[in-house]
């Protein structure tokens, strides 16, 4: 659940809990007290009316009744009581005090008789709403509300600290600890804090993996360079011998040149790997599939025929267009076909390239009749430095370069063993 939803739920829950507790406090402690308070006030009011009724029995005029009323101590406070006498027609004959708006009123009435005439006597006790001291029960409710709200706020702040603030502080601590090599672990939260923590953990894992990959690349390049370099140094040391025959010198020079070419090839491949993985501007151009097919055919047909490798290109989408960096895509074809040539060991040697229209993409397949790759290694061959050739003389970066180039074009690349015993590399390019 998202944090904003949790906060909204907490506020609603606090509101409901406050009402429940306040209602429970009222029902348990205040309702009876309030009922007794109101009953006492009503009884007092009824006593006043009864007193006036008794005193008016021997009176013969309203003025005499008025004199009785004005001598009652409780009614002297005109702010608390309102009194009126009406005749049978509803005419007001006597009125004392004022009715106040925004007040709580209690009423008591009685029919009184003067000289055989009946009159309605009504006495109203006026309790202003804003004067809570008049009804002490309200003070208890306010005090209870303050205590309940205080308790709820303290509980809410504690929950927020435990559930929100403390995890954020722990995340900050994890970030600081990672500087010193202490790795964070994922959590099971499903809110923004959990998302942030788990993404941070994934980022650290990617950084660690990238660091290990870089160290592996450095170690691999160092190893691959050291072997031919040691050989070159050895032959150079031998050539210091002035009595070395000229024929032997020439042989040593050829070997040293060959070894230096191996070193140059390793360095060039490493440079290509770095350039394809670093962000750089692509020089893309709109090109028809037919033009790319012809270009690949011209570039490899003669070379493969000289190696006695049959080369075929098939396409069902010649008229479609793609937007590509041609130099990088040519490098993709070069690396894949180069790998196929090195792993070609069958009697019938062939490489087949197909272009197929598939929804919004062009799927390119490059199949060979080589020795293929073990099923468990299919996903690994695109990793930097991985090679199924245990006696390798190259750094194993070719297919990793292909992956970077294809993903840079928004496509995907994968490998499959084909039905002719070799390997098929497939990748997609978006149509325009």
UniProtKB/TrEMBL annotation:
What broad class describes the main subcellular location of this protein? membrane
Q: What is its EC number?
A: 2.7.13.3
Question: Which CDD domains is this protein grouped with?
Answer: HATPase, HisKA
Which membrane topology term applies here?
A: Multi-pass membrane protein
Where does it reside? Answer: Cell membrane
Membrane-traversing stretches: 7-26, 137-162
Q: Write down what this protein is called.
A: histidine kinase
Source species: Romboutsia faecis
């Amino acid at each position: 659940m998202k944090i904003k939803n949790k906060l909204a739920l907490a506020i609603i829950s606090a509101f409901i809990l406050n009402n429940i507790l306040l209602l429970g406090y009222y029902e348990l402690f205040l309702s009876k007290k309030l009922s007794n308070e109101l009953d006492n006030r009503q009884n007092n009011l009824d006593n006043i009316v009864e007193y006036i009724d008794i005193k008016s029995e021997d009176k013969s005029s309203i003025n005499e009744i008025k004199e009785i009323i004005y001598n009652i101590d409780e009614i002297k406070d005109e702010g608390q009581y309102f009194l009126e006498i009406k005749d049978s027609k509803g005419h007001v004959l006597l009125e004392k005090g004022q009715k106040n708006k925004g007040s709580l009123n209690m009423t008591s009435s009685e029919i009184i008789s003067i000289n055989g005439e009946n009159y309605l006597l009504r006495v109203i006790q006026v309790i202003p709403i804003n004067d809570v001291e008049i009804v002490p029960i309200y003070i208890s409710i306010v005090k209870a509300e303050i205590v309940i709200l205080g308790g709820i706020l303290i509980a809410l702040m504690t929950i927020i600290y435990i559930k929100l603030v403390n995890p954020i502080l722990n995340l900050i601590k994890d970030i600081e600890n990672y500087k010193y090599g202490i790795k964070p672990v994922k959590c099971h939260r499903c809110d923004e804090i959990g998302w942030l923590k788990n993404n941070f953990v994934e980022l650290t894992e990617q950084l660690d993996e990238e660091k290990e990959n870089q160290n592996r690349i450095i170690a691999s390049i160092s190893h691959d360079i050291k072997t031919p370099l040691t050989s070159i140094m050895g032959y150079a040391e031998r050539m210091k011998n002035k009595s070395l025959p000229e024929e032997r010198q020439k042989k040593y020079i050829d070997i040293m040149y060959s070894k230096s070419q191996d070193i140059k090839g390793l360095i060039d491949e490493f440079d290509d790997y770095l350039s394809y993985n670093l962000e750089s501007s692509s020089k893309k151009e709109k090109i028809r599939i037919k033009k790319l097919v012809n270009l690949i055919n011209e570039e490899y047909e003669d070379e493969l025929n000289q190696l006695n490798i049959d080369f075929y290109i098939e396409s069902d989408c010649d008229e479609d267009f793609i937007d590509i960096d041609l130099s990088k895509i040519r490098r993709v074809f070069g690396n894949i076909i180069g790998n196929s040539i090195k792993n070609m060991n069958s009697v019938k040697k062939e490489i087949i390239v197909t272009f197929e229209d598939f929804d919004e993409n062009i799927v390119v397949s490059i199949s060979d009749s080589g020795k293929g790759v073990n099923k468990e290694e299919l996903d690994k061959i695109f990793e930097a430095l991985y090679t199924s050739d245990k006696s390798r003389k190259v750094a194993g970066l070719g297919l990793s370069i292909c992956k970077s180039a294809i993903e840079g074009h928004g496509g995907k690349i994968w490998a499959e063993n084909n039905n002719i015993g070799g390997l098929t590399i497939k990748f997609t390019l978006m149509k325009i």
